[in-house]
Amino acid sequence: MKRHLRSLLVVASALVILGTLSGQALAKHAGPTRSPAAVAPAGHGAVAIGQAKTADNGDTIVYITKTGKKYHADGCRSLAKSRIPIKLRDAVARGFTACSICKPPALTAGQEAAVPPTAAPPAPAARTAPAQDNGDVTVYITKTGAKYHRAGCRSLAKSSIPIKLREAVAKGYSACKLCNPPALTKK
């Protein structure tokens, strides 16, 4: 029994030594590692996340989200759910500010002066035509919920029962806040 344990110990030690030596050999032959910023060609807007950069012009593409007030560089973790491309100068003109996580490009002082001050977003145009009845639109309910949904809403994962909007509202269902389905309008 002792002899068997010694043999296992010798084999395990040999494997550890071989693994260490082969790892050193691989590192020796692999050469120096490069950061993503070093590999990217110059002049293509390559910036590693976390490094601030000034934009050469306002045509640089940055990204905004549906609900946020910040603009982001490509690859920012804040873009997981929503990612809308926009020109940097347009993002600044609409009042978006740079994300402090990904540190996207910023306009130079001269470019910022050229951007007009942000104005309040235009008010929605008043409807001149009477609202149309949308009661025949199909929405979806679940077996147990009290909300109605758009097709594809994540709340419909377990059950999805099609129903006309008019019927859903008449049965007491209210609109889902996640998918924001249409509200019932009457003529």
Structural class: alpha/beta
Beta-strand content: 5-15%
Q: What is the residue-averaged pLDDT?
A: 73
Spatial gap, N to C terminus: 91 Å
Give a summary of the structure in a few sentences.
The protein has five helices and ten strands; from the N terminus they run ααββββαββαβββαβ. With 187 residues, it is α/β, with parallel strands linked by helices.
Please give a structural write-up.
By secondary structure, the chain is an alpha/beta fold. Among the domains are: 53-114, no CATH class; 132-187, no CATH class. The chain contains five helices and ten strands. It has helices at residues 2-30, 36-39, 88-93, 109-114, 165-170, and strands at 53-54, 61-64, 70-71, 84-87, 97-98, 105-106, 138-141, 147-148, 161-164, 174-175. It has a two-stranded parallel sheet. It has a two-stranded antiparallel sheet with strand order 2-4. A two-stranded parallel sheet has the order 3-5. It starts with a helix and ends in a 12-residue tail after the last strand.
